[in-house]
Amino acid sequence: MNVLKKAIHRVYPPKHLAFYLQRTVLNPQRRQSIAGFFASRLPKPANQAVSQEEERGVQALETDGFAMLPQLITPGQIADVMEYLKDKECYDRWKPQFGRFQVDQAPPQCHVAPYIDSVIVAAPHLLEIANHPSVLAIVQKVLGCKPTISNLGLWWSLTGHSKPEEAENYHRDVDEWHFIKLFVYLTDVTENSGPHKFMRGSHRKPKLLPIRRYQDDEVHGVFGKGNEMVFTGKAGTCFLENTFGFHKGQLPISENRLVFQAQYSLHPIGIYSYEPSPQLEKNAQLDRYINRLYSKA
Q1: 120-161: per-residue pLDDT in tens?
Q2: What is the pLDDT of residues 195-218, one digit of tens each?
C-alpha cells in the first residue's frame, strides 16, 4: 500500500489529488454537504453581520445562482485601469505558441486574451474591488467561512470568429468544493460584445453533470431557454455567480469585451501555482488571510 501511495503522489501531488478528487463528486447536494464540513473548520470573519441588501444578494446566489451588485468601480477608475493596460501584454492560454502580445496585435486565431497575474495584482483599483466589504460579506455568508481569493482574471474576449471555443461553450466550473466568482465589466457589453450567460438555478440541479463543454440546445433542453440569463450592461456592471451552474462567455460579434474576475473559495485551487506579489505588502487594508495567495505580507 505504501508503494501505491508513493506512486499516486508522484503522479498527483497531494494538492493535485484533492483537486481531482472533488471533481469526482458532482451531485450538487453532496458537494454542498462536503463543503459545509470543510467550511466549519476554516476561519470565520470577525463580523458576520450583513445588511438587508447584502442578505438579498446571499438569497439570490443560493436560489438563482447569481446576484447583481451595485456598481463597485467608477468611470474614472475604469479609465485608470485602461490607461495602465496600454503597454501590458496578453497571452492565449489555449495556444501558448503565440507567446505574449498587445491586445490590438492578437493573432487572428486568438479568441480570449488574458493578462498574467502580476499584471492584474499591480493594476489600479482591481484588488480593492475584489476586497469590497459588501462583496466579502455576501461571499463569506454563502461559503460559511472567511473566503480565500483563489484566482484573479482579467481578459479580453475578441471578435473575428465564426465558431465558439472552450469557455465560449456552456460548461460547469469544478474548481473546488464551493466557490463564488465576481465579474466586473470594464467595457460596455451588448449582445454584440460577448455577454456572459448563465442558466438560472442550474447550480442546484443534478443534471448534465459530466465535465465537458455543452451545446446550447443541450442546456436549453434540460434547464429551459427561459432560464438563460444574459448579462449586458455599461462598463462597471458587477455581479456574483456560482459558476458550478452552467455558464459561458458568448462569442463576440462586433465588439471586444474586457472583464475582471475574482474567485472566492474555501481553499486554494489545487492545480494552480501562486506567486505572491510584493505589490500587496504596501496595502495594509487588505485582509492577509483572504489575500494570502497573492500577498507576501
Answers
A1: 999 999 999 999 999 999 999 999 999 999 999 999 999 999
A2: 999 999 999 999 999 999 999 999
pLDDT of residue 45: 92
Q: Long-range CB contacts (< 8 A, 24+ apart) of 268-276?
A: 268/15, 268/148, 268/150, 268/293, 269/19, 269/150, 269/151, 269/175, 269/176, 270/15, 270/16, 270/17, 270/18, 270/19, 270/20, 271/15, 271/16, 271/19, 272/150, 272/151, 274/117, 275/117, 275/118
Mean pLDDT along residues 234-243:
98
Q: Which residues pair with 197 in a beta bridge?
A: 230, 248
> pTM for the whole thing?
0.93
